[in-house]
Design goal:
By secondary structure, the protein is of the alpha+beta class. It has helices at 9-24, 29-32, 54-59, 63-67, 82-87, 146-150, 167-179, and strands spanning 78-81, 93-101, 111-119, 122-123, 128-129, 138-140, 162-164, 189-191. A hairpin with a 2-residue loop joins strand 3 and strand 4 (122-123).
Amino acid sequence: MARKKLHRPIAAMAKKIREYRALKNRPRESQRFSLDYETMRRPLTQKRLPVRAWEDARNENRLFALLCRLPRFGLGRTVTRKSWLWAHDEPCYWVVTKVKADYTAENMDHGRAWGYLTFRGKTEEKVREIDKVMYHDWRLVPKHEEEAFKKFTPVPEETIRYLPYPPLLRAMILAQWQKEGKPITEEPMIDLKKGTASPSQGAKKKAIGTPV
């Protein structure tokens, strides 16, 4: 018979105290992501940034390095990333709606932020936390350029309906059609919506088998 587990209130309280102390003593984001720009190392972990990131670390800004200079920490302002500007023609940006700054940081240039994300011209309906705020590639969109920056005319996406069969499967289908005496007047294609063998082959074959 299994031994009944005893309730140990003192041990449970001691566990909660240890968890609270570990949570209280954990390094803040300003300590975790602080950077020595001369050695390109993080003082807390002594980890060195990749060489490819040195130029951006010296010339670009983290998100809160931009927001801490603005009134009300830039609530309502539009921010984007250099990597988005290089990779996509469609507008990609965040509209900041909420900011929680780390007031223990020397210049209050660390913290968390939330907002609406527009990625490649498509805006999300729900507010969510802005990720990668510590990356050195954030840029602030000037107010007089926000309207032109957000302007976007969506291009209708081309939907592919039919695809050709692989060579071996195509040969098998043509051989089956020839065996059944069907005239081969068109190329067998995969209908992505219906899964039929060709545009004119709408009726599906019944499965041949032994009824159970």
